Structure formats: C-alpha cells, structure tokens
Predict the structure.
Amino acid sequence: MSKIISQISRRIKRACAVWEITLKCNSKCIHCGSDAGKSRSDELSTKEALELVYDLYSCGYKGVALMGGEPLVRQDWYQIAKEIKKYKMKLSIVTNGLNIHDHIQKIKNLDVDCIALSLDGGKPKTHDYLRGIKGAFNKTLDAINLLKKENLPVSVITTVNRLNFNELNLIKKLLIDRKVAWQIQIAIPIGRFPKDLVISREQFYMLALFIAINLKNYTVKRLPLIGAHCMGYFSRFIPNLGLDPWIGCQAGYSVLGIQSNGNIKGCLTLSDEFIEGNIRSKSLYNILNSPRAFNYNRIFKKENLKEYCITCDVVKECKRGCLGTSYALDYYNEPYCLRAIEDQLFKFDQTPIRWKINSIISKYKNLYYNIFFK
Ligand code: SF4
Ligand code: SF4
C-alpha cells in the first residue's frame, strides 16, 4: 500500500487548491454553482483552517484560491490568507467585490497574486439581475477601479448564459486597455442555476469564436483574455483558448476542491457524490493518496463514456473534457465540445474538406458579427 501511495504522490503535480472558506454570501446570484447564502452549520474553525493551510503546503500545493460564498465575509479570512503567504504559496481571492473598500488595506498588505471579481453583464440591469443585488454593477466597477488604483493584480470572471450572451462586447469595452485579465466560462446547471439559461451548443461555438477572434485581434497587453477549462476541446479550426494545451480534466490531479466544512473533492464544480473524504476524519495526505481517490480521473475508463466522447478519435488525450460540465449536463459525455459540435455540423466524409471549412468559417463569422456587433 505505501508503495502505491508514494507512486501516486510522485506522479501528481499539485498546482492549485480552490477553497470555499465559507458558504455565507452577501450576494444572491441566480447562477451560483454552490447555492451559497448561509454558512454551513459545521464550517472549519480558525484553528482547523490554519492547520489545513499547513497540510496543503506539506502535500505540495503551489497555490490556494480562496472563494465562497463570499470569502471576505468570513471573520478570519485575513488570518487564513496570511498563513497561505507565510508558506510562500500563491494566493488568489475570488470575491464579488461588494465590500472591497472595507478590506482594501488588508488585501494590499497580503501581496495577493490575483484578486478576481465577477462581472456578468455589460449593462447594469443584466449584472444586477444575475447577482440579485441592485447597484452591484456599479460596485463591481468601483472595486475594479480601486484595486487598479492600488496597483493590484485584478482579474474579471464572466460566466456566460443566455441573459448576458449578447453583452460580451460591452464587457470587453469596459476591460480593454485596463490591464485586467478576463476569464470567460459558461454557466452550467449546478447549484441554483436554471437549466433553461444554459447557452445552446450553437451559442457555445459562437462564444469560442468570440474568444478566438479577440485573442487574434488584441495583444495580451491590451486584453489578457482566456477561456476557462470548459472552453474546448481539440477544435479542428479554433486555436487553443486556454492558457495551456488541454491534457484532460485536472480534478484530483493538479486541482483540488475544498468545502468550508473540510470535505475534499477533485474540483468544486463536481457534485457531492464526488466527495473523497473529510479532513476531520482522515488527514489530507491520506485522502489525496488513497489508491481509490479520484479514480474517475486517475484510472480513466473509456467504458464509462457516452455518445460523442465514446466514438471520439482524441478521447485518449482529452478524456471527455470538463468533468464538471459533462456531469452536470450529461454524465460522462461532454456536449459542449468544439470538436463534437464541428463533427456533427460538418460531415467530413461527405464533402471536400476545404470547401466545408471555408463555408463553415464564413457562416460563423457572419453570425458572430451579427450577434456581437450589430
Ligand atoms: S468528443 Fe469528448 S473526448 Fe472528444 S474532444 Fe470532445 S470532449 Fe474530448
Ligand atoms: S471538473 Fe472542469 S473545472 Fe474542474 S478541474 Fe475538471 S476540467 Fe477543470
């Protein structure tokens, strides 16, 4: 057993633990994947949280992203953040920015590596509706301005759904030349997000084109834009939209999810069925290194796949895209996959390929300009 554990430990490079330090939130987002609002009744104490920071460090994690709920409403968030920096791990904070003025001095003291805010609409009405708070749009823009004024590394995350799909160009105008990184991801029906607001597969393809065209049109300096893990995979036409080439879902590999009561999952986008254990009853080291842990990824089985993925020619490299998305929409089959969408739209065996490629690109370019610029 110990031989297997040490083999697992050596193989895995642990990059980032995403830690919901509280489920309490001062926002009421309709697309909240965690269904946040009130704290969990059994959230980790300060002592337990500080011990967990040490455990993350000793297990080899290079960075920790604090999120919620809203992480800044937890009374001891600063103590936890300071402990992360003490061990020289990278620190990110994902916040709604509503109370940023109350915390700006502490954030400055911490030397954070990234502070990420959600911006879900290009118009105040849309953002406020999605976040469930009147005035949230202006507060988010204020928070961005304040953080920029203090020269802090700011990112914006936009979660795309049917209500904000047509406002991406407006959001882009707010962020361009501001040295604000922009991450685009799709909303999936987890937590309390209604399934009917998930974008269609056609819209998903348009969104990928939006990212690809803007990556081509703007330098990283002017618009540091990236697609999240859900924006792929292996398109025949669209270049890589993420930071790194896709090598499969990282849940339980380089990525870890921690709930505020100490439950451990491969990734927080996965449902509670994927909980591997709780740090109150088993050490983090033993959870991570159990030979059975994260087997959905660590021992990947083609037999579990369905539809597009099962017949896909690159399944060995891709391993069915984002597990969180595939699980939420269609267990072990990734419907929001650029390659699968293309293969359905263009039957490569029926028409000369060059003609197909040209006609499809011009069709989607036209659609793109109609949607985003008219
Ligand atoms: S069809 Fe499935 S395995 Fe193939 S590229 Fe898409 S997500 Fe990956
Ligand atoms: S479930 Fe999706 S978001 Fe989570 S690690 Fe896997 S690919 Fe990334």
About this structure: The CA atoms of residues 26 and 70 lie 7 Å apart. Strands lie at 16-20, 63-67, 90-95, 114-118, 154-160, 181-186, 225-227, 255-258, 263-265, 277-278.
